[in-house]
Write a structure and sequence with these properties.
This protein is of the alpha+beta class. 38% of the residues lie in helices and 23% in strands. Strands 1-2-3-4-5-7-6 form a seven-stranded mixed β-sheet.
Length: 221
């Protein structure tokens, strides 16, 4: 861990940050496991996923979690240390449709069809994002910078930004794996509470996702 007296600066992500954002998305999707859902669901290797994510992020389609403009990055001593994506659900259309479109564009119809063939396994874990709420995704801190309060600082920065730009928005939500203990504790410290749980009893899902158990956490602000 870096010394705690190093200055932390939070900035909006730019195209130059795409390599770190790809690292962020990969780590967030794995949720502390070795299972990388984009690779398992689309049936491609991790390097291919990283290539596709780089291309998708370069397109910068707002309103969903694979968008440069919706990310904030925390820098410590000038080094990217953590990141978080946030958008207002429904402001640009349903995020699930926007994300599906960019993934189909990135991976192609053949590989997108492989995901659809597994929809019956994923459906019990589906959590509908609440329209008009701030959605927070791909929250990540590099290992050497953990324990410095970066997660809370990033969340607070997004909440503050929304207070200024969209004062009518009063709720933020996070969807995560229930068994991601470190993330769960960090969000609880930031004031989030669990409001919904989803469970898939069929263990086959673990071939494709890092968890059988997802939760929705939220906070009023």
């Amino acid at each position: 861990m870096q010394p705690s007296n190093e200055a932390m600066e939070i900035k909006k992500a730019t195209e130059n940050d795409i390599p770190f954002l790809v690292e962020t998305i990969v780590a967030a999707e794995k949720s502390g496991t070795s299972v990388f859902s984009y690779a398992t669901l689309f049936e491609v290797n991790e390097n291919k996923v990283k290539e596709v994510l780089t291309e998708i992020l370069s397109e910068d389609i707002v309103g969903q979690e694979l968008c440069v403009s919706d990310f904030l990055i925390a820098y410590v001593g000038g080094i990217p240390a953590g990141a978080i994506c946030g958008w207002i659900e429904g402001a640009e259309g349903p995020s699930n449709i926007l994300k599906s479109n960019v993934l189909m564009f990135g991976f192609g119809k053949e590989h997108f069809g492989k995901v659809l063939s597994k929809a019956h396994l994923m459906e019990p874990l589906t959590i509908i994002r609440e329209e008009g709420s701030l959605q927070l995704e791909s929250i990540y801190v590099s290992e050497k910078f953990r324990g410095m309060g970066i997660v809370k600082a990033l969340i607070d920065a997004h909440l503050l930004n929304q207070n200024g730009r969209n004062p009518e928005v009063s709720k933020a939500q996070i969807i995560l794996a229930k068994d991601n203990d470190s993330a769960l504790r960090a969000y609880e410290k930031a004031g989030f509470k669990v409001v919904l749980e989803k469970f898939q009893p069929n263990a086959e899902i673990l071939k494709y996702l890092p968890t059988q158990h997802k939760i929705l956490m939220e906070i009023q602000f």
